Amino acid sequence: MAKSNEVLTPCSIMSRYVFLVQICVCVIFFVAVATADQEKCDKTKCPGPLRYYESLRCKPVYEKEGDCCAKRYNCDHLKERSKNKCYVNGKEYEIDEDLKAEDANPCDIECTCRRGWDDGVSPAFICAGVDCAFGPIKPGCYKRANLSRCCDEGKEICPEKPEDRATCVVDGKTYQDGEYFEVKNEPELNCICQPGYEGKNIEPFCVKSKRPFCSPEFRNPNDVYQNCAPVFYNDQLPQIDCHLSSRCQNSNDTVIHNHDDLKSGEDLDDENVCLFGNMKMHIGDELNRDTDYTSICVKCICEVPPVPTCQHLPNNECDVTKYYPAF
Ligand SMILES: *[C@@H]1O[C@H](CO)[C@@H](O)[C@H](O)[C@H]1NC(C)=O
Ligand SMILES: *[C@@H]1O[C@H](CO)[C@@H](O)[C@H](O)[C@H]1NC(C)=O
Q1: Closest C-alpha among 303, 271, 272 to residue 287
Q2: Burial (0-12, 13-18, 19+ Cβ within 10 Å), 47
Q3: Nearest CA to ligand 2 atom 3
Q4: Considering the entire predicted model, what is its pTM?
Q5: Are the beta carbons of 280 and 274 closer than 8 angstroms?
Q6: CA of 246: how far to CAs of 256, 263, 310, 315, in Å?
Q7: Pairing of the two strands 298-301 and 309-312
Q8: Backbone angles phi, psi at 268, to 5 degrees
Q9: Do residues 239 and 312 both lie within one domain?
Q10: Atom of ligand 2 nearest to the CA of 252
Q11: What is the Å distance from ligand 2's center to 321 Cα?
């Protein structure tokens, strides 16, 4: 004992132990970080009408840095908007101003910002009607459209042997020349399989839309100003699909409060509420379905504020004939 200067006090034993624990914690930490990095964030598993938010340029707000799913979105920029202008891609258009080519998708033909049909109805873009008609295709043949043109169906291609038709592998799925495909996490890309595709989602294989397809601000800005909710069909994914209609407040609508009262203290601040017309919903709250006069089978719930998510229920969960015997 005397030879060594080291005295083994409980404290020095403790400090060695702490060091080991630190190494151990450190190793666990790095392994955990590495695993989290490997599991890439799959936004299609997050709740909420995410594509709707993105189309309106709302900013995701995360509970903590590095989270995959947003707990709410910040759409405050929409409150500053003039009710006498049109908006697309965050740009202002005056009434009677034509849509610029840089903001126009191929089928946005002769679009102009027009005054609302009534006071209190915001201006919106009105375009020439487009109705694409596609001709029949001979058996064994196919067509390859040009993504940069509206209603383009392309020339008929008749390969001598079916094997001559080029294929594309995208996210593990195989498509044939001329077929449309979707790219995971990039819903604004419009793509067609063509010869020469090597996994790069660039032109001429893919074209990014010049304005977001789903944005209500283009044709229905009142949906935004009146705090309406996007409605999705049962087989749609609100995370990546465009909504097909909207549910706006009527005077009989009520909120069913489902939120946990014990937690309501943290929920009650105005940042974590969904807005539906002039009503507020906490996370988990639902709209009364009986007052939806367009369809009783649409469930609207506050998942990721500030916009409620509305989705048609599967047929086995909602029998329309029970409510409307005339069906
Ligand atoms: C597609 O259409 C655009 C615009 O009309 C044109 O510039 C381009 O050459 C076409 N691409 C092909 C492959 O035909
Ligand atoms: C609200 O309910 C009343 C009574 O059922 C009905 O007469 C009225 O039309 C409803 N309001 C709307 C906006 O549909």
Answers
A1: 303
A2: middle
A3: 252
A4: 0.80
A5: yes
A6: 19, 30, 8, 20
A7: antiparallel
A8: -75, -10
A9: yes
A10: 1
A11: 21
Please list the residues that pair with 88 across neighbouring strands: 91
Domain hosting 55: range is 17-74
Do 22 and 48 belong to one domain?
yes
- Largest Cα–Cα distance of the chain, in whole Å? 100
Q: Is residue 12 part of a domain?
A: no
Residue 323's pLDDT is: 54
d(CA 145, CA 132) in angstroms, rounded, equals 12
pLDDT (tens digit, 9 = 90+) per residue, 140-195?
Answer: 999 999 999 999 989 999 999 989 999 999 999 999 999 999 998 888 899 999 99
**5 belongs to a structural domain:** no
Q: How far apart, in whole angstroms, are the C-alpha atoms of residue 312 and residue 73?
A: 23
Residue 184 tokens, joined = 């995971």
Q: Return the DSSP state at 136.
A: -
Tens of pLDDT, residues 72-90: 999 999 999 999 999 999 9
> Are 48 and 29 members of one domain?
yes
Closest ligand to the CA of 106: 1
pLDDT the model gives residue 24: 42
Cα 172 to averaged position of ligand 1 atoms, centre (Å): 28
Domain count, the chain: 4
Closest ligand 1 atom to Cα of 154:
14
Tokens of 129: 């009607």
Give yes or no for residue 204 CB within 6 A of ligand 1.
Answer: yes
Is 313 found in the same domain as 240? yes
285/258 Cα distance (integer angstroms): 5
CA 249 to chain centre: 22
**140 falls within a domain:** no
105-136 tens-digit pLDDT: 999 999 999 999 888 899 999 999 888 888 88
CB-based contact 56:78 (threshold 8 Å): yes
Amino acid identity for residue 45 in this structure? K
Q: Are residues 66 and 84 in the same domain?
A: no
